[in-house]
Amino acid sequence: MSGLAPGAPEVAADHPEPPQTDLSPIADAVEDAGAAGFVAVGYRFADDVRYLSRFGGPDRDYAVVVTADRAALTAPGLFDEQAETEFVDAAPDDGVAREVRTEGQRGPAGRRAANVLDDLADADSDTVLTPADIPHDAALYLENAGYELSSTTAVDDARLTKTEAELACLSRVQAVTCRGMARAEAVLAAAEPDGDDLLFEGEPLTTEILRREVDAEMASHGIRSAGNTVIGSGSTAADLHYTGIDHIAPGETVLLDISPRGPHGYYGDLTRTFVVGSDGGWERRAFVAVEAAHEEALTNVEAGATAGTVHEEAAAELTAHGFRIDSSEVGFTHGVGHGVGVSLHEGPSLRADTPLQAGNVVTIEPGVYDPDIGGVRIEDLVAVTEDGYERLASYPVRFTPVNAE
Amino acid sequence: MSGLAPGAPEVAADHPEPPQTDLSPIADAVEDAGAAGFVAVGYRFADDVRYLSRFGGPDRDYAVVVTADRAALTAPGLFDEQAETEFVDAAPDDGVAREVRTEGQRGPAGRRAANVLDDLADADSDTVLTPADIPHDAALYLENAGYELSSTTAVDDARLTKTEAELACLSRVQAVTCRGMARAEAVLAAAEPDGDDLLFEGEPLTTEILRREVDAEMASHGIRSAGNTVIGSGSTAADLHYTGIDHIAPGETVLLDISPRGPHGYYGDLTRTFVVGSDGGWERRAFVAVEAAHEEALTNVEAGATAGTVHEEAAAELTAHGFRIDSSEVGFTHGVGHGVGVSLHEGPSLRADTPLQAGNVVTIEPGVYDPDIGGVRIEDLVAVTEDGYERLASYPVRFTPVNAE
């Protein structure tokens, strides 16, 4: 059997070009602090460094150094051409002159960063801004070179608001995510209850079979990392990041939370919950409540709204439906959403007392759980706009799965 | 068209159980140093923390604390049941008593680690061992709590030698990797030269089409993260970690370096190079040289052999075939291999002056490159044994791709 449940979006054959990073907010933070510069250290899987450099380099630490008007990437020599292409040639016109520095390649990234900073910095200052979680060895190299570290949230802040190019990346990943979900829904709809089993192509259906169908569908559209296909069934649907293997029984909640990563590092995030052969008990009540809370939360999303209000309104709706809020095990146990970008979880928090901004990309994902029964969550990924929100891609909300077209 | 080129291994339907981690080498390092304990801080994608805890928890930092006979994981409350299952219940009998600590959940991981260490440590010592790259903010919390940090390589050292359970994980991932390669080879064999194009199902073949075929095949066998399918064609075959999109022309080297990550975090790593419609020039000479160097390198792999010898012997073979060694652009530009485990690149280095040990898992991957023409690399993943090596999975070496069975 192949096919998708109805309502999945079409996807473009090709992924958009990599977004460019405007480094001027980092350069401005350096200038405002009167600092010599900013230093981030990490390797190609570190999200901040990936965002700042757009460099898909080695599995060894390298550094990004930014001063008030210049920026350097300390690439290993084997990767210098790739670094020139990705960091320098592809850069936007943001007033920050970029270069690749390959000297001292075999030395530690922190020492190389200190040397480059000595060379680039105009400011008469010993202060260097860094993310708080810079590797400790890199911090010590900077301190030994005479710098005093001061932590900055400038990168987190810059990442809060997405550009059009970032939205295009996120949208395509989310559209492919919807197609993965449509594949799972089609498989569930084709499965036949048989005693305690759901039979799919003659075999008892498991979450692992479902996961492989989802991941293969997404891979066929160019998603490169499908390592976050969380699927719970019955009681494991109450475990938030569960990726184990379970037998799926009729009448159980099957919760799929699909968060793949696209070629340029941006994530999708989509959750649906289905039940095959429900007898209309807890899971039906939970679904109705969560669907209402999801809609209520969405109506509160717009630029200028207080982020925490979105959570509170979802919680109020779930309370009105008789579900608990204050427990870590039963009811609505988590926040209503989080930002998504080159990290799966980033700002803004939807529990914070700060206003949402146009260009924030957030999940809206209320859920209720009972570890003895199951869990229901419904999640969409939306971009905040001046007067509301836009879904990055849309997929129907259905309790009973529908057959392939 | 579907199908695989001949010679791909069969794979078991299910992935093996997660390996357990013997924490006694870490506890011994604490005792030997007379330290209060060991602390690692990271989130679920940080390789050390994943290895130490086997916990697939949240996208927020947590800590693993180990003393001479106890160990604690500071899990967030939402994940305490999962932490108990994965860190405590699944632990081996290694003399280290494990527990999950959920107090102070909303505080920073470094402060929580310091509190747990205050509570667990017997030793009358202010020294705490940490990996050198512990996040700087966590290091500061530990220092503010009165501890003096001392960096340790105990975790890297423990990871050097794989257990039977780790070898089983690596072997299945590598077997699935071979099937991904077999899919790519079948597609290449089915492609028809047409002027400057290779036509596959009527369309000009690109590296992206090939990548999607590989990744979908691996996903269908339960590989969860196929984000490292490096494919170069012609000149981009000379770029080591290149994942861009290229048109594939007849006569060009097509280099596929496939490094997916399995469900428990272990990587596979396999490289083959094919040419469709070769006229027998540089690429044929390069292939013959690299195949000979690959075989020569393998004959030098055994427990007790000096690691660097493996590199030197491969280099000598390539020199004998007339290829350069000392350049960063032309010839043999990189090391002959590296360790693989829960990191794609880890110890041992095959350039080091230290003996190989039984249970090391290393790639053997000589290659030669000319940025104006292309690149050829052949790579297998092997476990070092007392009297030689064993491939974790085998796949034929062929220059001209062979059709699907």
From TrEMBL, chains A, B:
Keywords: Hydrolase, Metal-binding
Signal peptide: none
Domain of life where this protein originates: Archaea
Chain coiled-coil ranges: none
InterPro entries: Creatinase/aminopeptidase-like, Pept_M24, Peptidase_M24B, Peptidase_M24B_aminopep-P_CS
Peptidase M24 domain residues: 169-386
Single annotated GO MF: metal ion binding
Start and end residues of each stretch annotated as Disordered: 1-23
Family: Belongs to the peptidase M24B family.
Protein name, UniProt field: M24 family metallopeptidase
